[in-house]
Fold this protein.
Amino acid sequence: EAGVTQFPSHSVIEKGQTVTLRCDPISGHDNLYWYRRVMGKEIKFLLHFVKESKQDESGMPNNRFLAERTGGTYSTLKVQPAELEDSGVYFCASSQGYGRAKYEQYFGPGTRLTVT
Amino acid sequence: ELKVEQNPLFLSMQEGKNYTIYCNYSTTSDRLYWYRQDPGKSLESLFVLLSNGAVKQEGRLMASLDTKARLSTLHITAAVHDLSATYFCAVDRKETSGSRLTFGEGTQLTVNP
């Protein structure tokens, strides 16, 4: 079974540019989460999709960040325009849903974003 | 707001030695997780601890949970170089629609020959 995949693995952009990160969850997983780790600090929650709906986006830092999950499959996270403080590693995770042993989140390898 | 603190943040140890990583969390949570991350790789789930007094062991790693003290420990026995990685603890709360994880800052472990 394929795991969570993320693309690209690395992205270097200039301040003011736009970047779109993609996450493909494990097939059949309704829940999809975005997290990021900035400057070696803790990994912080950004938002949570259940299928195509945003369940919780309280962790999104500001309106320069836009996440979508078309058709409840893959998700994209767009940063526009990027700022220096957006640099970090963006992780995606997915889980099946409710119930015993279905809550566990499986993580992708992350996208390392560098804004110069 | 749920907060998670890990210590130490950096740990350099000799092969064959024992050590413990500590994880404190600020409010009641439902599950505690330990993850391992190798550079450029995914977070790999090591343990999920669900109840007070839970203890789980896998190889040279053993995790325990004390919900009254809001403390989990990850104990490393007779460390080997292959254990070098960053270790994260995280907690969550059961919600009606899945759960968001709150992470500690991670402990970067280096095991020296």
